[in-house]
Protein 1
Amino acid sequence: MVENSGMDIRDRKEDHVNLAITENVTISGVTNGFEDFEFVPTAIPDLDFDEISMESTFLGQKFSAPIMVAGMTGGYPKAKEINNKLARVCAKIGIPMGIGSQRAMIVRPETLDTFAVKKEVPDVFLVGNLGLVQFSYDFTMDQYHEAQEKVQADAMAVHVNSFQELCQPEGDLNWKGSWKNLEKICKHSKVPVIVKEVGTGIAYEEVLQLSKIGCNAVDVGGAGGTSWPKLELFRNTKDDALDLNDETLKWGIPTAFATWEASQVKDIEIISTGGMYHGLMAAKALAMGASMVGIARPVLKSLIEFGERGAEKWLKHYILNIKRVMFLLGVQSVDELKMQKQRLIPLRKAREWLSYRKFL
Ligand SMILES: Cc1cc2nc3c(=O)[nH]c(=O)nc-3n(C[C@H](O)[C@H](O)[C@H](O)COP(=O)(O)O)c2cc1C
């Protein structure tokens, strides 16, 4: 294993937040694919806009809207402030939030309070976070339980990020035993398990396998939003690192296609994350069958630039925009929106992709 000291992880997590805010961490020409789907509208909506309900259910819990803040940070002093602010905003709105990888907390237990937002905000629905690859090295189920219990996570996200690790100067590349480790996690976890990609998407075949081993939800984490490989390459000064070049970083399933692929699998809930910049994209993901839409960098940016009220305003506006699309579709509830897949027309690349994969 490339042994990282606690200090290295702390620096890395701080770098991630700074780079995500200051650099262009998207890939030019790569989109999340939702522009290749169009809704058939309703010209005569037989409903009252004010009666449209945004309430939604995820992992058996009710939320005020079908969106969540995807896991980002923890492990260094400023992260405590960021996570606590995000927790207050999410609890106020009534939506779930994720924290960043708790590996830092396992290596340096004194960083617990940078993740443990429930101490200040007990009502927030909290999704914990650990990286699957760590279980191919030295992480144990006891550490998994410890990570979940110490922050009182209501669900645990296990992130899979092979492309990111490949581009990270200190990346972990021995992924042997990953499926066995996942099976163990799904079997023994005391809370629902979400397997979470971070920007290259998860294909139908793997989602099917995840549902078979008892995984509760999949965050498809598709291409088209924040590019982790690109973000890591800003930090990578090794001579033989992959080129920090948008052409070499074009890799992965766009979020829209990954969401559609995942929707072919029954018995697993879907979170659609990756470049979900506005409500129209979110409405399309929900119509495909997603239970939640995950948003990371745009919320972080609004929080850092405009504070807690800015992030709250941004999220509320986003929810309002989903509601506006629902009005134009003539649907009254999120459950009804989730049954509108037949009204999404796949165009261009979406049509090619989905036809070739025999999903049309
Ligand atoms: C600053 C930052 C840190 C992140 N750290 C983590 C992490 O520790 N664990 C994880 O699973 N995902 C992490 N992510 C990935 C996000 O959860 C999300 O999958 C990705 O950024 C795509 O969403 P976006 O396009 O809305 O940013 C991080 C994202 C950002 C922007």
Protein 2
Amino acid sequence: MPEPEIQPPSSKTSSRPVIGRRHRGTRSSAEDRSKPKTSPPRQGASLIGATSVSEIDSAMLDLLRRCIAMPSISGDEQPLVKLVADQASRWGFDVDLFQTDEARLAGYPAALGRHLPLSGRPTAVIALKGRAPGKTVLFNAHSDVVAVGGENRWLHGPWSGATIDGRMYGRGACDAKGPLVAGLGAMLKIRQLRGHDFAGMVALELIPGEEDCVDLGTLTSVVRGYRADAAIILEPTEGLPRCAARSGLRFEISVHGRAVHGTVKWLGIDAVRGLRYVLGALDEMESQFSQIERDGRYTDYPVLRPITVDKISGGGWQGMICDKALCAGYFELCPEDDLDTWQERFISELTDRLVAQGYPGDGIDVQFPERYRGFFTPTDASVCRAAEKMIRYSSAAERWKKWRGFNSGCEGGLRFALHRTQTLVWGPGSLEQAHRIDEFVPVQEVVDCSGAMAAAVLAYLDSEGT
Ligand SMILES: [Zn+2]
């Protein structure tokens, strides 16, 4: 099937408005009253207010549909990465498609996390270089998606990309293929508006494995040598930029008991009962931990530090008191929480509660096979100032209240920790849809978000200093 093509790079500035839902001149008077009096920079404005879906927007949505059709469940990202890399080459961007193995990542803690082997899971870096030297902005998107959870339970097929009532459906529609395509679209829009007449570079790294082991995919790009002054992590944020993201710990709890026949159960130690105590204790700990040291960027979320069990197993031969049960899940923290401190606290609170129930204190073993750091960018950093200025002129302006943190972990912590990269999380779609049956992304939000991000990136690159 022929694909809509975007013209190759041109230094000619387009004469028509480029991106977005409506022209600035068509605003209602009520909207006009709510808008700031000052004019946005000329070029940024033309990225945010257009009357119709442009050629770029149609090409973006076509690519999104083709991306959703690729079942890129963690471990099987390669076909999707190749699809996007090929399309980016045809659009005239520089593309670096590379494969990394674990040996090259040695020495970085992220590489030590439990993860699927990296073999056959490439990374792509897609770049648009400006004519003059300057800052680098790096979009970051993950190529993998989670499993579909029963294909026959989907109303619209998980790989269909069906578009109904302005929503595009499919696994990964909002997490994170919609955001990925919005980032690529932002690069197309920057090039359409400015060609290569800007200082610095805009690039997009498409990394594997975020749903499997946070930071590992970004590490492949860091080790390849890519550095950034500012990063925009493409995840579903309802089209609003976020200035922070959570740290997190993956936990695996083994509960040990003593196996005996069920009719003489008083002689044994029941690991299944122990697991019930563990699950109850985790609920109590979640509410206790959510009351303390509140982070202002997370006060809007009902659960401040979620503890989510996603796996339980156990049992043995029928009719027995069994000697082993397991549970695993994520403990999601605030950006500035120290991982070591909270890890110790998690173990000691859990053990104390088990002992209080009469279960042996040495009856559990807790491992943390994956750890990732959050980040927090000061809201007076130039990337935040650029994003806030442009979001106020976008169709998302009425939903913009204040800076908040992204309510999840993401790939932003690694570069922030290594290079203090100013980092935002930003993309169309909502976390409320991520990982669900019938996941979707609002199509107009993909279009609008790409325009707002393009305008913010240009405002940042054009700004003085870092
Ligand atoms: Zn994601």
